[in-house]
Amino acid sequence: MNTVVLPLPGNEALADALLKQPALPRPAERGELAVRVFPDGETHLRLLSKVEGARVVLAATLDRPDAKLLPLLFAASLVRDYGAVEVGLLAPYLAYMRQDARFAPGEGVTARYFAKLLSSHLDWLVTVDPHLHRITALDQVYDCPTRVVHAAPAMAEWVAANVPAPILIGPDSESEQWVAEVASLAKVPYAVLDKIRHGDHQVEVSRPEMAQLLGRTPVLVDDIVSTAHTMAETLRHLQQMGAKPAVCIAVHAVFAEDAVARLTSSGAARVVSCNTIAHPSNAISLERWLAEAIRDVCGASPTERRAE
Ligand code: R5P
Asked: For ligand 1, is residue 203 a contact (CB within 6 Å)?
């Protein structure tokens, strides 16, 4: 079956990088989709490639998701109209995973609603380290088969090659799953702090132990950096404790508002991210693993894919 990688706007580099990976099921080619917005704000789509009989990989990372969702769902319907036999989504960043519970009466559990919407249009989904916390596996909310790429091996390689004598620091208990794995692969020590979030911009983080920092470069690791208040608060503690200038690593560089400026003004020596969301800080590439995950999910028979 032919594989057509169809990038949504802004995902062209991701599609091109994916097509260079030997693991991507072949034959494979890049598809073209023209997307524009009518003067009244509605979306116009035009498919410029043949997809009849093909497997279509929609490439669309989903930071700032609200404006991206409708064109994506329309694109899935459009390629089916034109005869695509399989429609999967490669979304290196999967949005809406953090609102995974009702924290106050009346709140929407948008992680579930988002998953329902996406699943109803897809045969499979491949993503990178989704924020799994109270939802502990994607199949608890996604009805289609999913594959998760872990960024830890690539992050560990980067740390080992770029930071002499590091100590990894996870700013909250949720980060332990990433930090512990990166630390074990890079064979370096790690510490996990406690965080209390009071609001979007108010975060309290505990201090690391002084003894753990001696002679080491702190490397802060988190899955998502959004406003960067979590990392900035940790950086301020480290500065006050006289630690060496720290490196910040995000799997997903969501970087809302003035996040990068907040990190540098709080003492970050370097800010680095995986390339799940295009940003100048991208230093860790994951396409190899993405292509392998796509090969894996496509390798399952249609029945297995549905039954998972
Ligand atoms: C949530 O628990 C995540 O793992 C991150 O710690 C959080 O999203 C970071 O948010 P911010 O950068 O806005 O502090």
From this structure: yes
Shared domain check, 156 and 86:
no
User: Shortest CA distance to 169 belongs to which of 122, 231, 112?
Assistant: 231
pTM over 0.85: yes
233 and 303 fall within a common domain:
no
What would the pLDDT profile of 214-237 be if each residue is shown by its tens digit? 999 999 999 999 999 999 999 999
**Rounded-to-integer distance, Cα 90 and Cα 92, Å:** 6
Question: Would you state the structure tokens that stand for residue 167, as one six-digit string?
Answer: 């100590």
- Which amino acid would we find at residue 6? L
Atom of ligand 1 nearest to the CA of 175: 4
* Exposed / middle / buried, residue 263 (Cβ in 10 Å: 0-12, 13-18, 19+): buried
d(CA 162, CA 171): 21
**Is residue 177 lining ligand 1, measured as CB closer than 6 Å?**
no
